Every structure is written in C-alpha cells, then in structure tokens.
Amino acid sequence: MTAFSTGRWMGRTRRPSVLVLRIAPLVLLIVIWQLAAGYAANNLLPAPLTVASVIGREARSGALLFNLAVTLARVVAAFSLAMTLGTGLGVAMGRSRTIDRFCDPLLILLLHMPALVLIVLAYIWLGLTDAAAIVAVALTKLPNMAVTMREGARALDKSLEEMAQVFEVPFGRIARHVVAPQLAPYFAASARSGLSLAWKIILVAELLGRSSGVGFEIGIAFQLFDVARLLAYAIPFAALMLAIDTFFVQPFERRVSRWRPAHGA
C-alpha cells in the first residue's frame, strides 16, 4: 500500500471517529435524561419523547420557527454591533497607550457590570424595544471583545509593519496583508466566545421585556410551570447555536489560524 493510499485510508477512518466523538456525548445525555425522567415526576422532568412531541406541535403551528427566527435576528444584530465596536476599540487600545489608559477603567466597569443591570437600564432609557435589547446585549459582549482584540494588537509583529513601510506599501495593503492576518485568530476566538455569550443574554432580555422570541416563550412556560414547553423552545435554539458554531464559527477559526505553526511541531 502506497503512502498516498494509506493517508487516504487514515483520513476516511478518522472522520467517522471524530463524528462519533461529537455525537456520543449527546446520545449519553439523552440516555441519562431518559433514566432521570423515569424517577422524577413528569411535570418536573418530562421524558425526551414528551418534549419531542411538544417540539413537533409548536413547529407545526409555526410558533417555534417564528420565535427562533426572531431571537436569531436579535442575536445577529447584537453580536454584529458588539464585534464592530469591540474590534475597533480593542485595536485602538492595543496600538495607543494613551487610548488604553483612558478607556481601561470604563472597560473594567463594563466587564464587571451584571448583564441584568444593563438590560434593565436599557429598557428604562430606551423603552421596551428591540433596539434596547440589542444595545444591552452588545454592551455586555463589547468589553470581552475589546480585551481580546487589545491583546491581539499588542502581539502584532512590528518588524513586519516597519518593513512594509520601508518599501512604501500603501496603508490599505498593510492593514489587509500584514495586520489583519495576525489579528484574525484573536477575532475568531472572540467571535466564538461572544456568540455563546450573546444568545444566552438575549434570552434574558426577551424574558424581561419583549413579547416574542425564545426567551419570551420560556418566560411563559415558567409562569405556567410547563417544563416540557420550556425545553421544547430551549433545546432547538441551543441546537441551532451549536450548528452555527460547528459549521460556521469553528471552520472560520481553523481557516484564519492555519498559517500559525502547530504546537509541538
């Protein structure tokens, strides 16, 4: 067997094993859930099939898809706003000591400010609107993004920029071909953590002050003590976020980090 055919065979056998490793924990979780539901009261922990039937019912009525879409739109808006502002602020702080000293206290304040406080204040100041919810979630995510991008800006190889300036490379090309590739891994890592944070906080914002969305439906289920309905909205949205992370965020992170040498190489 040639080295080429051996490599292809190893690649084919590795892919199923990776898939199994990713699916196995979910299967194990469902098995544990089923076993636990057998000992708990049905109204406290309904069985997986019971929740699945509620998911089907809500999907057929159109309510599940509508609320998933509404919440996802809010997550995308808040996430995009936080990434844009956080990237700009973080890079500026990493490149300028004056800006860093001026903005650092405000950044620390936002880092330690509870998300609940920001959401309530946004609703008081801006009203019970989508804009208020999006701004509150963006402000909660912004400091984490800025801190990560600040460290990325500090780690830039200045010798590459100096060399580009010596050869009189235009600023736009320096930003695109020298600075951006070095910042990309930090951006990807922050995007991944930020996405997981944004969708959790948006549910709280919806529960407190919106009349639609997954968080609103979870609040209704809580008031009715309907655990099956609560899980019927929570699980599909968590699965949607898992799919986005798996098929979009992780491949992007691997792509922008592929120029870096592997550990131990």
SSE inventory with pairings:
Elements: H1 3-39, H2 48-61, H3 63-95, H4 97-112, H5 115-126, H6 130-154, H7 158-166, H8 171-209, H9 214-223, H10 227-256
Helix pairs in contact: 2-10, 3-4, 3-6, 3-8, 4-6, 5-6, 5-8, 6-8, 7-8, 8-9, 8-10, 9-10
What is the strand content? under 5%
- Rg, nearest Å: 23 Å
Number of domains: 2
CATH superfamily of the largest domain: MetI-like
Q: Enumerate the spans where pLDDT stays under 50 for 5 or more consecutive residues.
A: none
Structural class: mainly alpha
How is the biggest beta sheet arranged?
none
The end-to-end span amounts to 27 Å
Proportion in helices: over 70%
Count the strands?
Answer: 0
Per the principal axes of the C-alpha atoms, what is the gross shape?
A: globular
The ordered string of helix (H) and strand (E) elements is HHHHHHHHHH
Please, how many helices? 10
Determine and state the CATH class of the largest domain: Mainly Alpha
Mean pLDDT: 84
The CATH topology of the largest domain turns out to be: MetI-like fold
CATH architectural category of the largest domain: Orthogonal Bundle
What can you see in these coordinates?
This protein has helices at residues 3-39, 48-61, 63-95, 97-112, 115-126, 130-154, 158-166, 171-209, 214-223, 227-256. The chain has 265 residues and is mainly α. The chain has 2 domains: 14-45, no CATH class; 51-256, MetI-like (MetI-like fold), CATH 1.10.3720. Helix 3 (63-95) packs across helix 8. The longest helix is centred in the last third of the chain and has 39 residues, at 171-209.
